[in-house]
Amino acid sequence: MSHTPKVKSQCWQWPGALDDEGYARLQTRNGWSRVQRLIYEAVNRAIHEGLVIDHLCRNRACFNPKHLEAVTNKVNVLRGIGQTAQNARKTHCKNGHALLQNNLERSMLPKRHCVICARKRRREWEQRRRAKGWHSKRINGKMTWIAP
Asked: Rounded to whole angstroms, how far apart are CA atoms 60 and 19?
């Protein structure tokens, strides 16, 4: 899992306009551009297709080229502090079970679930249904719940 590299120099705070997301922007012949992209391309090279500029300092208004790195969107997201990055760094579920290969269940969404907790929730759900008079029955090879 990628973590943000340490930054050893000061941020260069953009004195001009910022966009709605807090990124430095500048008006060019082609319209508004994000300053970090212009600076990165001027100092380093063209930004390859599929890459975004990551602020290693986490300061969106910074345009110090030492703080900018071209990375995939996935790397950029996982280096961040958002919900996706926080969940990706988790090693245990909220009940303390290790999130290891044999205890991981992936849903249709890109989410990980603890198998131990999922089984416990399923058992509790089935007990509540039975307490209300429901019962399960195999129909055409598939378990189905029958109402009371």
From this structure: 10
> Regarding beta strands 68-72 and 135-139, do their DSSP bridges make them parallel or antiparallel, or are they unpaired?
unpaired
DSSP 23: -
Three-state SS at 21: coil
Query: How many angstroms separate the CA atoms of 106 and 126, rounded?
Result: 22
On whether the CB atoms of residues 146 and 137 are closer than 8 A, the answer is yes
- Reading the block at residue 72, the tokens are 């995939």
* Number of alpha helices (DSSP H) and beta strands (DSSP E) in the chain: 4, 8
**Residue 52: helix, strand or coil by DSSP?**
strand
Rounded Cα distance between 118 and 69, Å, is 39
Q: pTM of the full predicted structure? A: 0.65
Q: Would you give per-residue pLDDT tens digits along the chain (148 residues)?
A: 445 566 667 999 999 999 999 999 999 998 999 999 999 999 988 999 999 999 999 999 999 999 999 999 999 999 988 888 888 889 999 999 999 888 988 777 777 889 999 999 999 999 999 999 998 888 898 888 888 8
Does residue 84 sit in helix, strand or coil? helix
